[in-house]
Amino acid sequence: VQLVESGGGLVQPGGSLRLSCASPGSTLDSQTLGWFRQVPGKARQGVACISGTNGGTLYAESVKGRFTISRDDTQNTFYLQMNSLQPEDTAAYYCAAEQNLLTVCHYLRFGSWGQGTQVNVSS
Questions:
Q1: For the segment 17-45, what is each residue's pLDDT rounded down to a tens digit?
Q2: What is the pLDDT of residue 107?
Q3: How far apart are CA 116 and CA 32, in angstroms?
Q4: Are 24 and 75 contacting, i.e. CB atoms less than 8 angstroms apart?
């Protein structure tokens, strides 16, 4: 599955961004989808994941109440709405997909990845 991300950039603290991840030519229907982020020297962190079977979601504690993952299977696209962004949210963000059941939002559970998009939160 090919995944193409868009929507990163520079935003001030307290601002919002929406990341998009499209799958041109492939269906995402029934796949578990996720957003991850990584800063240099650290492991890739699960931010939010969404089930392909029942729409259930998992979020990292640090983003609960601020970030929302959603999917539009008719457009083969999913999203990460990020509100109240803080400097500690600065990272490269990656989208991912896998044909499996959502049990944990961990990067080792995913095999298809986007190219990454940088999010910088700074005044």
A1: 999 999 998 889 889 999 999 999 999 99
A2: 94
A3: 18
A4: no
What is the per-residue pLDDT across 111-121, written as a single tens digit (0 to 9) for each?
A: 999 999 999 99
Beta bridge pairs of residue 46:
36
d(CA 121, CA 26): 32
C-beta atoms surrounding 104 within 10 Å:
9
Specify the DSSP element, H or E, that contains 6.
Answer: strand 4-6
SS3 for 53-104 is CCCCEEECHHHCCCEEEEEECCCCEEEEEECCCCHHHCEEEEEEEECCCCCC
Burial class of residue 42 (count of CB atoms within 10 Å of its CB; 0-12, 13-18, 19+): exposed
Q: 114, 3 in Cβ contact below 8 A?
A: yes
**Angle at 49 (CA atoms; ends 62, 17), nearest 5 degrees:** 60
Measured CA to CA, the distance from residue 109 to residue 123 in angstroms comes to: 35
